[in-house]
Write a structure and sequence with these properties.
The protein has one domain: Methylamine Dehydrogenase, Chain H, CATH 2.130.10. The chain is globular. The protein has 343 residues and is mainly β.
């Protein structure tokens, strides 16, 4: 029927109407795939930690010692205040199941805690009382191997590794990493300024007056806005060993550019998008194929061409975005206890 109507030269009006109808369906389908559903909001917690085990099991963490968990895709949430850490700010969380998760409390002293009973109790697996200590982010490549990064102490970034699922942490020799520039640090904005490439290799990005990517003993200046303590890289996402995207900007001037950089050769050369994300961004996540997503104070943007062009799909502010490790959903967390999802 469709072929007959389109080929009938005597019914151009119906042909045009049908083409418009088909186009409307296609547009509607594309838009529905990018609708952000708000699952929780209205509280007073800043949620920067976010870990998505599967499409239904999601953990979040944030200020005032709070941790949240859903087992039904966000229909209901269980909220916990970690006993003894009521004033802590848990800026990052890594969850492995509905029972097992690790949270990171950022500063002076810095703590890493682990639960194996769904958050009913937490065990302290790491503590650091060093002056100026501030943890920024964690990343795990599996349920055993992970890294945590913190701001410079005594002239070197703090980095520690676990090989037993966070039960113990071993600090790296700081002298083996490049010396950070003056006022260079990491932003604990979304738990994503360190990413593991493989079990033997990880990268991290920095901000401040200077903004770099550090890969082993190599440090490369990034083509992002920098020069102030509020500028630089906030987040890195990794597609494969060669393809990374970094986002950031200036959280005190959300319109500052450039705010995004792309590499396809493992970080040797960086380029800027043809169409950048809109405004300051605190998190970027690789989805699949050529699709990436990022979020920040200025909303959510998506790219379907490996970061060359970005389109804003929401102006709602979120700190972090993470794709399901074993599924397709994308979750978001932000201020005011806000949590969202793209199904």
């Amino acid at each position: 029927m469709l072929r007959i109507i389109l080929e009938n030269k005597y019914v151009p009006m119906y042909r045009n109407l049908l083409l418009k109808f088909i186009l409307l369906i296609l547009i509607s389908g594309e838009s529905s795939a990018q609708v952000i559903q708000e699952l929780n909001s209205g509280g007073d917690i800043s949620l920067r930690g976010l870990s998505v085990v599967n499409d239904n099991t999601v953990w979040v963490s944030g200020s005032k010692g709070k941790v949240g968990k859903t087992l039904d895709g966000g229909k209901t949430w269980k909220w916990m205040t970690v006993k003894g850490y009521e004033k802590s700010d848990f800026r990052d969380i890594e969850a492995f199941s509905k029972k097992i998760a690790i949270i990171m409390a950022v500063a002076e002293p810095a703590f890493i805690l682990k639960t194996t009973n769904g958050g009913e109790s937490w065990k302290k697996v790491y503590e650091n009382n060093a002056k100026g200590m501030f943890l920024d982010a964690m990343d795990f490549i599996d349920n055993k191997n992970g890294y945590v990064i913190g701001d410079p102490i005594n002239g070197r970034f703090f980095i520690a590794k676990t090989i037993d699922g966070g039960e113990t942490w071993q600090e790296y020799n700081r002298m083996s990493f490049p010396i950070p520039d003056s006022t260079e640090a990491c932003f604990a904005s979304s738990g994503t300024n360190v990413r593991i490439i493989n079990k033997d290799r990880f990268v991290y990005v920095t901000g401040g007056v200077y903004s770099n990517i550090v890969m082993g003993k190599q440090k490369i200046k990034l083509p992002l806005t920098q020069g102030k303590e509020t500028t630089g890289a906030n987040s890195i996402a990794v597609k494969d060993s060669n393809t990374y995207i970094i986002v950031g900007g200036d959280f005190s001037n959300v319109a500052a550019m450039p705010n995004c950089a792309i590499t396809s050769d493992g970080g040797k050369k960086w380029t800027l998008p043809q169409t950048s994300p809109f405004g300051y961004k605190s998190c970027v996540e690789y989805i699949s194929g050529n699709t990436w997503i990022c979020c920040g104070l200025t909303g959510i943007d998506i790219s379907n061409d490996n970061g060359e062009n970005w389109k804003q799909i929401s102006n709602v502010s979120y700190h972090a975005c993470r794709k399901s490790k074993k599924g397709k959903k994308i979750y978001f967390s932000g201020n005011n206890s806000r949590i969202g999802v793209i199904n």
